[in-house]
Design brief:
It is an enzyme of class 2 (transferase). One of its GO terms (cellular component) is DNA polymerase III complex. GO terms for molecular function: DNA binding; DNA-directed DNA polymerase activity. Keywords: DNA replication, DNA-directed DNA polymerase, Nucleotidyltransferase, Transferase. Its EC number is 2.7.7.7. This protein is an alpha/beta fold and 343 residues long. It has two domains: 137 residues, P-loop containing nucleotide triphosphate hydrolases (Rossmann fold), CATH 3.40.50.300; 195 residues, Zinc Finger, Delta Prime, domain 3 (Up-down Bundle). The chain contains 17 helices and eight strands. The strands form two sheets. Strands 1-6-2-5-4-3 form a six-stranded parallel β-sheet, sandwiched between helices. Helix 4 crosses helix 5. The longest helix has 23 residues.
Length: 343
């Protein structure tokens, strides 16, 4: 069985085996799937600018004619050179075409298939994992703490930036649900801190917290304004929609950091409404009432404790992926219950 994860996946991606031209990338981290697909395609073409060297196919369209994948893979390029095919898998099966290519692998064509978080009994995944030669399956899962540390160093090094210890600790908890989203946040942070030499905790709170996912606002606002019933309802909707639990925790972490910073200003004597209207990042008007409720019911000390609670939950969702939804829901319900009474 050829299913790669961790260091084995990294080694294969650094030097792709020509004897396994078919690569299935799957998993809950869609950003990592795309990043790895981009790298494989770039390494598989002699001339990336040649419009005839790369073919893009839709998996659902292939399901009607799986043999088209075989025809494209075995086609002889007019001007020679290596070619690549990029397939976006959907809900319909085109495994017959993949199995035909596994039986007779092409020599000068790399086939990269991008899939979602497909189950072990999925026909496409089973075909690639069980292939003695010709194919390999690579799982793309949310980054662990060590992966996030390397990502932070790689992105900030390119901008000649160091990062303070406390800033790194908080930043680590805010990243990891999606590789592409993590890179985007780091690049935004690097741009914000350009010329400073060192990224501070203030930079992280100001910049990275300004990225709340509007689809998750209902869950987060319900938790911090003390509405556990709404948390349960909205969380269930998010799970049905296929939302990764770590993304919900990430959104809650960002909001907790925002509320904590705002709470410090309110303690200094500025009314909450004034701070919310004039602060940065600016909170969407639809969330203002929930934020005011949270600031009334949750003290600065309690918000600091919630930040630690969410950081622990973020790490646990990565360490125990199968229990991620339960961990995230339990944490948010705990916050909602504590927010129902003044702390």
């Amino acid at each position: 069985m050829v299913a790669l994860r961790g260091k084995d996946a990294t080694s294969f991606l650094a030097r792709p085996d020509p004897g396994r031209p078919i690569v299935l990338l799957y998993g809950p981290d869609a950003g990592l799937v795309r990043e790895r697909a981009d790298a494989l395609i770039a390494a598989s073409l002699d001339d990336p600018k040649d419009p005839f060297a790369l073919v893009r196919l839709d998996g659902d369209e292939l399901s009607a004619e799986p043999s088209r994948l075989v025809d494209e893979a075995l086609a002889i390029p007019m001007f020679g050179g290596r070619r690549a095919i990029r397939v976006r898998a959907g809900s319909r099966s085109f495994v017959a075409g993949v199995e035909a290519l596994i039986a007779s692998p092409p020599r000068e064509c790399r086939i990269v298939i991008e899939a979602g978080d497909i189950k072990p009994d999925n026909a496409l995944r089973k075909a690639c994992e069980k292939a003695a030669t010709g194919a390999v399956a690579i799982g793309c899962y949310p980054d662990a703490e060590a992966d996030i540390a390397r990502l932070i160093d790689d992105e900030l090094r390119g901008s000649n930036l160091q990062i303070a210890k406390d800033a790194r600790a908080v930043l680590t908890t805010l990243l990891g649900g999606d590789r592409q989203a993590s890179r985007n946040e780091l690049r935004k942070l690097a741009l914000y801190a350009h010329g400073k030499g060192e990224v501070t905790l203030d930079d992280v709170i100001t910049c990275v917290s300004d990225a709340s996912d509007l689809k998750l606002d209902a869950i987060v606002d319900a938790a911090f304004s003390g509405k556990p019933v709404v948390v349960e309802t909205e969380f269930a909707k998010a799970m049905v929609a296929g939302t990764y639990p770590g993304q919900i925790i990430l959104a809650a972490q960002r909001h907790a950091a925002f509320l904590h910073k705002t709470s410090l200003v309110v303690e200094g004597g500025t009314p909450a409404a004034v701070v919310l209207d004039s602060g940065f990042p600016r909170l969407h008007f639809s969330r203002k009432a929930a934020a005011e409720t949270a600031l009334r019911n949750l003290s600065t000390t309690r918000l600091a404790q919630i930040i630690e609670q969410l950081a622990s939950a973020a790490l646990e969702t990565r360490r125990q992926a199968t229990l991620g939804a339960a961990i995230a829901q339990r944490t948010l319900l705990s916050i909602a219950v504590s927010a129902r009474r003044r702390s």
